[in-house]
Amino acid sequence: GDEVITVAAGFPTTVNPIVQCGLVPVFCDVEIGTYNIDVQQIKEAISPRTRAIIIAHTLGNVFDLDKITGICAEHKLWLIEDSCDALGAQFDGKRVGTFGDISTYSFYPAHHITMGEGGAVCTDNALLSRIILSMRDWGRDCWCAPGRDDTCGKRFSQTTQYGNMPKGYDHKYIYSHLGYNLKITDWQAACGLAQLERIDGFIAKRNENFDYLHKALEPLEDVFVLPRSNPRVTPSWFGFVLTVKDTAPFDKGELVRHLEQNGIGTRSVFAGNLLRQPLYAKDAIALRIRDGELKHSNELQNEDYARLPNTETVMNSSFWIGVWPGLSQGDLQRMVEVISRFIESRQ
To answer: Kindly report the CA angle at 335 between 199 and 216, in degrees rounded to 5?
Structure first.
């Protein structure tokens, strides 16, 4: 029943662990342009049951770490930084993933570096590190590294009573958490380490591609909201978000279909409004929207969704195009030309 603050304009893997752990997600809105959490709403969302904040740096654009870490310190909240889309980004010259109590990264093929699949969890807290490793290793209580036995010298002589197990039971086979088996393979690790040597070049090219698109699309600001970032942020761009304005003579769907038909890949800004997704709509998941009352997800009405207006805009009007480092200037130029010609045809 404890509460964790997050956003509805995100990805389900950020929210699902909250629900799976029996906690209550509390949803805040995002800002159009940065697509990160509205910091003011965090303050409105905090209740006596709030214990943590878990949010992502959206598409490589860093949320306001100064204000959010300050809120966490003031209210004694855990901060989990979802840095899956922002590897290498910086806030005030410091790498993201080093501000929170725990940070997460993804090495899925589309991300800044890849191991084919998988990711990483980081912390600088020794106790949290031990808990995380236990969760990774089947929930095992033993702290021996894989392939090592009896490093404490007490494998068969533990004096602690673990649950209802016999005293002195083999500590390597004592399980204290509902854990998993989440270890990467050696070849994945080798791939990841090789990619790390190239990460600075990958990031530089992504940011260069982003800057090209931003400058080239500035003449179209009458129909688009272009992405922006905090001046204290050095992004590690994952994509280039465009939000179609209400006054535009076309809608997102028309443009996206045109781009796809012309060989230009597009992506939605993740799940749009998570609260409308079928996985939450069909199940009675307890949640709150910011300063609202506790509700169940299958009871939400249109007025509830309307309390997250920017999230609704993201769902209906926002999408993103790629800044992959393998794109040539010709590729980028063609993207701009296809978008521009489409808009000219609608004037």
So the answer is: 85
Q: Which residue has the tokens 């009458």?
A: 222
Q: How far apart are CA 158 and CA 161, in angstroms?
A: 8
* DSSP line for 53-79: EEEE-GGGPPP-HHHHHHHHHHHT-EE
What pTM value is reported for the model? 0.94
Of 300, 292, 302, whose CA–CA distance to 5 is shortest? Answer: 292
Q: Are 175 and 215 in contact (CB under 8 A)?
A: no
pLDDT digits (tens, 9 = 90+) for 263-315: 999 999 999 999 999 988 777 899 999 999 999 999 999 999 999 999 999 99
**Euclidean distance between CA atoms 12 and 17, whole angstroms:** 9
Question: Residues with catalytic annotation?
Answer: 111
Query: Please, which residues bridge with residue 178 across strands?
Result: none
Measured CA to CA, the distance from residue 48 to residue 75 in angstroms comes to 10
Could you give the 3-state DSSP secondary structure of residue 127?
Answer: helix
Residues with Cβ within 8 Å of residue 22, at least 6 apart in sequence: 1
Residue 69: burial class (beta carbons within 10 Å; 0-12, 13-18, 19+):
middle
CA-CA-CA-CA torsion sign (94, 100, 102, 108): negative
Beta strands 102-106 and 267-268, pairing class: unpaired
